[in-house]
Amino acid sequence: MIKISPLDNNIREITVKRPNEEIFTFITLGATWVRWQSKDGNDLIARYQDYADYASPGLYLGNTIGPLAGRVASGKFTLGKKEYKLTKGEALLHGGNLGFSFENFDIDYISNQPKETVVCFKLHYDKKEYPGVIDLRVSYHLFPNEVRINYLATTSSLTALNITNHAYFNLSGDFSKPIDHELLLNANKVVIPDSMMIGGEIKDVKDTVHDFTKTRKLSDAYNNKELKDSITKGIDHYYLLSDKRPFALELTSKRANKRLIVDTSYPGVVLYSTNDQRDRPIQSGELIAINGALAIEPQFMSNAVNDARFKGFPLKKGETYDHYISYRLEAFK
What mean pLDDT value characterizes the chain? Predict the structure, then answer.
């Protein structure tokens, strides 16, 4: 079953009920993923109670983030010998006012088959402040107990792209208290943010609070005094994924009897343990608790456009930006 409903300001809502009773909802504003309800009725991701809250910066719940995900130092970068200044000197977060999150995408197509439903959005992105004219497709491929997001983009001239999704997960469906999950993360290195939250020192995770190469509690990290007293206030770091890995990460809730396995074509992932509380209620009518969810954001290193240590993300005319993120839900055994 698929239902398309008009909302305010030409925004549309698409609700998909799959044969196994899973329910997914998306809105065209920001090509945003607002619901993943498992067949037992639990909401696995957070969404704003009022869709109007998606129209301005906040927690970016389920948004498509781009053209530059994360923070870009001083809000500027040089590409093709030309400097682009997108802020007045402060770090640029998630594209700022130019972010994909605030663009109302068109519905490209919807395909509904017993084994797979696809909801595909498209955006023609043409901003005088930003290099190139970008044509982007964001497609959500829904399988039984699995979501795969594909990003395909082309450009009229040299540009920079770093696109991700900003869904916040709590497999128990209870966002009112700190998340009690365990994490296995196939990453041996972490990037430590500087005082401006820009990626600085690259460190081995071994013997640090960031070592999730063996399954351990998330709370061991987000309650760690060193992290709590730091600029991040908890987990808010970029982890460099191992080249040879069976998957990127595994998030487990023993209480909910669920495991989420995430993989991606990107070289790393930002994890954010919801270290600040915002004033906009989610679907329960309450605020997300501090540490009440984990945002999982596979992407390139945010400031790679200014930092030669990391794989950059320029896209040339004639090339295709082609990346994916997959989320697979399993029963915990």
Answer: 95
Alpha helices in the chain (DSSP H): 219-222, 225-228
3-state secondary structure of 236: strand
Q: What is d(CA 70, CA 87) in angstroms, rounded to the nearest whole number?
A: 14
Q: Which residue has the tokens 């398309």?
A: 4
Res. 332: pLDDT tops 90: no
The token pair that represents 299 in the structure block: 């992407």
Instruction: Report the run of H or E that residue 199 belongs to, with start and end.
Output: strand 199-204
DSSP string, 3-61: EEEE-GGG-EEEEEE-TTS-EEEEETBTTEEEEEE-TTS-B-B--BSSGGGGGSSSS-T
Pairing type for strands 216-217 and 182-185 reads antiparallel
State what percent of residues in the chain have pLDDT above 70. 100
Q: What is the four-CA torsion angle of 46, 267, 69, 222, rounded to 10 degrees?
A: 50
* C-alpha span between 328 and 75 (Å, rounded): 35
How many Å is the maximal CA-CA distance in the chain? 54
154 contacts 321 by C-beta, under 8 angstroms: yes
Name the β-bridge partners of 29: 104
The residue behind tokens 């043409």 is 126
In the chain, what are the domain boundaries? 2-331
267: alpha, beta or left, given left = phi > 0 and alpha = psi -120 to 50?
alpha
Distances (CA, A) of 104 to 26, 59, 82, 98: 12, 18, 29, 12
In terms of Cβ atoms closer than 10 Å to its own Cβ (0-12, 13-18, 19+), residue 300 is buried
pLDDT confidence bin for 132, thresholds 50/70/90: very high
> pTM value?
0.96
CATH code for residues 2-331: 2.70.98.10
Q: How many C-beta atoms surround the C-beta of residue 331 within 10 A?
A: 9
